[in-house]
UniProtKB/TrEMBL annotation:
<feature type="domain" description="Death">
    <location>
        <begin position="244"/>
        <end position="311"/>
    </location>
</feature>
<dbReference type="GO" id="GO:0007165">
    <property type="term" value="P:signal transduction"/>
</dbReference>
<dbReference type="InterPro" id="IPR011029">
    <property type="entry name" value="DEATH-like_dom_sf"/>
</dbReference>
<protein>
    <recommendedName>
        <fullName>Death domain-containing protein</fullName>
    </recommendedName>
</protein>
<dbReference type="InterPro" id="IPR000488">
    <property type="entry name" value="Death_dom"/>
</dbReference>
<dbReference type="Pfam" id="PF00531">
    <property type="entry name" value="Death"/>
</dbReference>
Amino acid sequence: MGAILNTLSLKDTDNLSNLSPNRADWLTSHADATGLAVVEVERLWNRFKQLTGSTEHTHLYPDNNALPNELSNDIFVKNLLKHFPRSKADPNSIPFGYFLLVMHWFEDASINDKLSALFIYLNNGEPIDAVMIAKLLKHVYRESKDDDIRLISNQFMQQLGAMDQGRLNMAQFIAGVQRCFAPGELEELLKFEIIPGHILEEANAVPSLQSSSSNLRDSNGNAASDLVTESHMRQIAHQASRRNWTKLAVTLGFLEYDIEAFIAKNNKDSSAALLELLQVWREQEGGLATKRRLKRCLEQSDLQDLTPILN
């Protein structure tokens, strides 16, 4: 994957390496340099802050155990970050601008390019075999027996067309995957959107940030009245905490270990844990933390009776 990502044009973002995130043009400068919309840069900046664990750090140091605990133990995240291009001035770091360009590539790359990158990611570009797949699956199915893992690995290789030698090169891997999935299904599986389409529609109602040629948001309307307030969150947390509120947390994009961390931090007080989770969600989403969007999440979490709170 690194061989592919290192072909990205990085020079336009190099000039931003020393730019402070406290500057008013932090988001717009990165939007103009990468061709992303400001709303996309804003979302990715929030994700980047999660990775660094800081609101100030503009470089990520994945080799120095700088990731939050839950991510530092995730072998898939760690391996993915190994393939990101590094700063020439500081070879141990991934600048925020590079992070943006990689995310942009994930969104726009063709199916063939994504499958090529996936192949390189799996075994650093070397041919893959059942033994390598078994090692990978052990991290996914931690409770499964070795014999079961071995059986699944062999079936996987057979489905992809591995012959007597039991190994697949990149071309064979790509052809095998494309043969196993219908084109539309494969495209959906590999689809990556920085901002899902329905959220982008809502973003069009948010007033534009100034001084950005790539800002896609309209300047009309008063979106502030549609943003979720502290009062909304407190009411929802109080009422939803008595029910299966973790489903709402998952719908909002939080992972299981995120939820467990909020619960532990708040001494198993579900109402307090959910309130803090909602506050973090609002902070991360910024102008996208709308009442309309939270209503949809409540409906998807079987909490539709709480939507009147947001009227």
